Amino acid sequence: MKxxxxxxxxxxxxxxSIEGLSIELLTEIxxxxxxxxxxxxxxxxxxxxLRGKTIVNLFFENSTRTRTTFExxxxxxxxxxxxxxxxxxxxxxxxxxxxTIRNLEAMHVDMFVVRHAISGAGHFIAQNTAPHISVINAGxxxxxxxxxxxxxxxxxxxxxxDFTQLKVAIIGDILHSRVARSQIQAFNILGVKxxxxxxxxxxxxxxxxxxxxxxxxxxxxxxVDTDVVIMLRLQKxxxxxxxxxxxxxxxKCFGLTExxxxxxxxxxxxxxxxxxxxxxxxxxxxxxxxxxxILQQVSNGIAVRMAIMSLTMQSxxxxx
Length: 320
Ligand code: CP
Hints:
The chain is α/β, with parallel strands linked by helices. It is built from 11 helices and 9 strands. It has 2 domains: 158 residues, Rossmann fold, CATH 3.40.50; 149 residues, Aspartate/ornithine carbamoyltransferase (Rossmann fold), CATH 3.40.50. 35% of the residues lie in helices and 14% in strands. The relative contact order is 0.16. Phosphoric acid mono(formamide)ester (CP) binds next to helix 2.
């Protein structure tokens, strides 16, 4: 099946999902991000790669990290960036997503960065937008959060030499997590040795093993010998039924504590896409501790999103 996000030449035109991308493409994103990572240490934190381009951030769901780092990434590429306030936009008067897109297209936009509660919203926009426009998925429903997965891969690569030697554990609300889905796809493409998911049965999708993971319902067994420990937030806003007795009970059974972290390898890194709920999925001293790379993930979001934005624009065949 044709991958909507690739041009005829196999270049990244949109960035909607990790699924179907090659190891070469993921590596190109990571290498390009590497070239931007030193920019904050320069006196002028900008490059002219997207000068004259207009990027619109369309966030129909709340965000702190993704929205801000996309905005900073666009600014550092010298693009003109507009972050729409959906709450005060005509969406509140019943304007459809497609009509909003058509109107913004009429303002000569070059890229949409979209977060939406509905899975597939980014694909829908990419299918219905003008050919010169790139669409980047900043999180769609429970489906995908591909830029988060790439900044996580970038952060892991800064600490670990070889993806193929890694044992990775993803812990928590796998069922509702678009981040976990995108991470699992990226880990499998990059050839990670073992991807474990650790969660209560109620927070696992059915047939989760078919994603290429090993399932554990006991955190203490699942953490043994791991190199990367990824904690996830309980997404209560997406839970339609009571899937857990209580947050206290959840922390008792699945929370990351100092004692439990000792079961992982001594040089294991602790990650979390944020926002974190201290005392619910992770102990505060672990979140702020020496093994935590949570704030590095946030910083890396800028370089990785710069890479993805510049690569998708390049696919339009322009000299940038
Ligand atoms: N990781 C992440 O998507 O965080 P935000 O919801 O703050 O963007």
